[in-house]
Specification:
Layout: E1 9-16, E2 19-20, H1 30-43, E3 55-59, H2 71-78, E4 87-90, H3 96-109, E5 115-123, E6 129-130, E7 146-147, H4 167-178, H5 182-201, E8 209-210, H6 229-233, E9 254-263, H7 268-271, E10 277-286, H8 296-307, E11 316-319, H9 324-334, H10 347-350, H11 357-372, E12 376-383, E13 387-395
Parallel strand pairs: 1-8, 3-4, 3-5, 11-12
Antiparallel strand pairs: 1-9, 1-10, 2-9, 5-9, 6-7, 10-13, 12-13
């Protein structure tokens, strides 16, 4: 465990249960979802004065609606934190929540802050339609509304068409490149549902989940306990008639929010609890937009290099499952034991509310490392338009001699 006060530590993490598109959380505004987790993560450290929070940083992919563009500041106000607590919103699409954690860690390491709340939110159910402004007043023709729920909209005509392929189409290209069969993808998806259901049943998520006012929701809505490879094999192809990707081996549209409590080591006295993990390394990587599913590979490799460790020392990996094919491509490239990856389910089962997923994988990784005394863990996520992010955590409670 590092003793440098300019080191970033994770103290706590919470999230809402994730709702499916049009499901239990569809009537809850994204700013209210964000306020729920912000308030909850502060309340879980009763000795932490709310005014001691130096910054709230939240990720959000779709900032065009009820979030009022700076959902972090809205969450601060709606959560009842002092108006002196600032809030900023970051957008790196699917990686927004993890980017918020990274930005928070940097603020701690530079001495700009001692306590930061980071995480993210997304209501894909409530993402608005948008109309482009016409080039001149009073056009005679029709204008089409574009959905902001997912993917490209109002595309710049100068953008090469091979870069603006759909997310699913991009991953069909990835499948062709690496030859990852539909059978493997369906097996991975069935595993995600099985492990998510088992984790919920065994109480793994109990301490990570906070309730949303007015919503009766027991667990993540996307989990289908009876999912089998045989049932998944019956689903229709979603993007390419000769392809492999279906609604069953891809993550669903979702709603939810997450929050992570970060602080320096010296902030333990203010927070009133001991840190759980050190942010030991961070990595970002970018490549061609259509290859985005593979971007976590190098992002994680860079994060590990900055942490000064190798894959042989990693005991837990939380890789956001945007699609089964890209998850398998990353795991294959890392040459790691697949059994250390997403042992409590992943986004295919739990859901992928874009801005919230980064906080979700940090919280799940933290809990896995705590429960199993795992020293080193990696959280990684792919991001549409060709980017990837990764964070390495070191469990400060694990024995110093433990390699994993």
């Amino acid at each position: 465990m590092a003793s440098d006060s300019a080191t970033a530590f994770v103290y706590d993490a919470v999230r809402t249960a994730f709702g499916k598109f049009g499901g239990a959380l569809a009537k809850t505004r994204p700013d209210d979802l964000a306020a729920t987790v912000v308030r909850a993560v502060v309340d879980r450290s009763p000795k932490l004065p709310a005014e001691a929070v130096d910054e709230v940083i939240l990720g959000l992919a779709n900032g065009a609606g009820e979030d009022n563009r700076d959902v972090a500041r809205m969450a601060v106000l709606l959560a009842g934190l002092p108006t002196s607590v600032p809030g900023t919103t970051v957008n790196r699409l699917c990686g927004s929540g993890l980017d918020a954690v990274i930005n928070g860690a940097r603020a701690l390491e530079t001495g700009d802050a001692q306590v930061v709340l980071a995480g993210g939110v997304e209501s894909m159910s409530r993402a608005p339609w948008v109309l482009p402004k016409p080039d001149r007043a009073f056009p005679a023709g029709d204008l089409a509304a574009a959905s902001t729920t997912l993917g490209w909209r109002l595309v710049n005509p100068r953008m090469p068409k091979e870069w603006t392929v759909s997310l699913g189409g991009a991953n069909e290209l990835l499948q062709q490149k690496f030859g990852i069969s539909r059978q493997r993808q369906d097996e991975f998806a069935a595993r995600s549902h099985r492990l998510a259901d088992a984790a919920w049943t065994e109480g793994f998520y109990d301490d990570l989940i906070v309730a949303v006012d007015g919503v009766e929701q027991g667990r993540d809505e996307g989990i289908r306990p009876g999912t089998t490879v045989e049932r998944l094999a019956e689903l229709k192809l979603a993007f390419d008639p000769q392809g492999t990707i279906t609604a069953g081996n891809a993550s669903p549209l979702s709603d939810g929010a997450s929050a992570v409590l970060l602080g320096t080591e010296a902030a333990a006295a203010t927070i009133g609890r001991d840190p759980l993990a050190r942010i030991a390394g961070r990595g970002v990587f970018a490549l061609d937009p259509r290859d985005f599913g593979f971007a976590p590979v190098e992002a994680a490799n860079r994060a590990l290099a900055r942490a000064g460790i190798g894959w042989d020392q990693v005991g837990a990996v939380e890789l956001n499952e945007a699609f089964a094919v890209q998850s398998l491509a990353c795991v294959d490239a890392w040459k790691i034991d697949p059994e250390i990856v997403n042992t409590c389910g992943g986004a295919i089962a739990l859901g992928h509310p874009l801005g919230a997923s980064g906080g979700r994988i940090i919280g799940t990784l933290l809990e896995r490392m705590r429960r199993d005394s795992i020293r080193w863990g990696v959280a990684a996520i792919c991001i549409g338009v060709g980017q990837g992010l990764a964070v390495v955590l070191e469990n400060v409670l694990a024995t110093e001699g433990a390699s994993r």
